[in-house]
Amino acid sequence: MSHPTPAQLDAAAVDCLKKLDLAALKVKERLAIPPQEMPSQDPEVRRRNIQEVALGYTAAQAQAEALRCLQCKNKPCVAGCPVAIDIPAFIQAIAEGDYQKSIDIIKKDSLLPAVCGRVCPQEEQCQLPCTVGKALKDVNKSVSIGRLERFVADWEREQGKVKLPAIKPETGKKVAIIGCGPAGITVAADVRREGHAVTIFEAFHKSGGVMVYGIPEFRLPKVIVKEELATLEKMGVTIQTNFVVGRTRKLLDLLAKDGFDAVFVGVGAGLPKFMNIPGENLVGVFSANEYLTRANLMRAYDFERADTPIFRSQKVAVLGGGNVAMDAARMAVRLGAQEVHLVYRRSRVEMPARIEEVAHAEEEGVLFHLLENAKRILGNEQGLVTGMECVRYELGEPDSSGRRRPVELKGSEFIMDVDTVICAIGNESNPLIRQTTPGLDHNKWGNIIANDQQLTSLPHVYAGGDIVLGAATVILAMGQGRTAAAAINKALAAQPAVT
Hints:
Layout (H helix, E strand, L loop, with lengths): L5 H13 L8 H6 L10 H4 L12 H8 L9 H4 L7 H9 L3 H9 L5 H7 L11 H5 L9 H14 L15 E5 L3 H12 L3 E5 L8 H4 L8 H13 L3 E3 L10 H6 L5 E4 L5 E2 L12 E3 H9 L18 E5 L3 H12 L4 E6 L10 H9 L3 E4 L1 E8 L5 E14 L5 E5 L5 E3 L3 E4 L3 E2 L3 H4 L25 E3 L2 H4 L4 H20 L6
Parallel strand pairs: 1-2, 1-4, 2-3, 4-16, 6-14, 7-8, 7-14, 8-9
Antiparallel strand pairs: 5-15, 10-11, 11-12, 11-13
C-alpha cells in the first residue's frame, strides 16, 4: 500500500482551503471537508529507526481540520474529556490562525498537551461523542482533536514560547507526591499554582513514569516529556529521583516526620501479570514492562552507544491485544527480529489497542494471530525458548467486560516456532506502599481505594491514576490528578496559615 508523502498531504490541504469561503462556512460545507490524514514516516523506513512515526499536521492541514468543527453549543466533546478542556474554543483559535490563544486555552486544564495529543485514546473519549463523527456515522471521521492539540503544543515548543503558569504567593504548606507519572505531574502543577511547596519522589533514576519507561520513542519522543518536566521545575517543583517510598522512606513518615501537609500517591500499576502457564521461567520469556523499560528508559535500541543488555531475538511472540502489546511488538521489529507475531485470544473487534496503533503495527510487518493464545512455552535442555504451543478459540457470549468471551476449541493445539515470548496481558499495582502503610485500604486487586475526591482511608493521603484505576490511560490518570489537586488545595486553604 502506497502512503501519501507529507508534501502531498499538505498540498491537498492547501488546495482544499483555496476552494472554501472561510468567512461563511455552513454546516454542510464543514462536513464536506475531508478528514486530514496524519503525515507519517514510510513503514519500510520507520521499522528500521526509533524516530517518531507520526510527523504532525502542517499549518494548512491543521486549519482544514479545525474548520471541520461545528462549534456545537452543547460541547459533547468536552464531556468526553477527563480534564474538561474547552475543545471547541481551542479548535476555533486554530481555525483563526491564533495558535497562542489555542495553546493558552488548553493549558488552563492540561499541562501535558504535547503528550496527550500523541498518546491519548481520543477515539474512545473526546472524539467518540463528536457531532461530526456521528453525522458521518464513523468515529474515525470525527474532528481529530488529539492531532490538533499536538499541533499547537508542538508550535509552542518550536517557537520557544512555552509560558509558565501563574503561581500564587507562597503559603508555607508542603505537599509530597509519590510517582512522577501523568497523575503526579498534574497534581504537582495544580497544587504549585496555589503557592504550596511541592516535592515529587520518583523511584526510577529518570522522572516521567510510564511516559518514559513504557511508551516507546517512536510514539512519544522523550525530549517532549523532558521539556514538560522542565516546566514543572521552573515553577519551583522539586523532583527527587531514586527515592522509593516504602523503602527509602515510609509514606506516613512524610507526614509525621518530614512536615508534609498532604501526600498524593500516583505510583501507577507497574507489576506485570503473567499467563501462569508451563515454560514461563525459560530464558527468552519477558514481561512487556521489562522489555520496554530496557529499550526505552535504558536505550537498548542504541546498539552502538548503550551497554544495556537486551535479548537479540529472531522470532518473537507477543501475547496481548492492548497498546502495550503493540508497543512491544513494534519495538521488537526495531530491535531486529525477523518475525514478530502478535497473539490475541479475541478478534480484532474486541482488541483494546488504539486503531491507529494496530494499523501501524500491521504496516510495519507484525503478523496478527487472532482467536489464538499460548498454552505452554517450550524450551531446550539449555533452558532457552524454542517454541510455543498455542490453541485456537471461537467467541461465545459477552463476559463482564462486555466483550465476547473466548471459548477454546478442543483439539486445535499447534506449535509456533519462536525464540522469544513477551507477555503483555496487563499490570497490577506494586504492593510495596500498601504493605508498608498501615490503615491504607485497598481492593482485592491491590488497588488503593479512594473516594470521589481521591482521598484514601488515611487522613491527608490522596491517590489517583493507575494505582486506583488499574492499568488505564494517561488522560484518565490526569483527570484523577486534577480532582485530587482540587481537594488538596481546598483542604490546605481551610488550614491555618503558616507564619
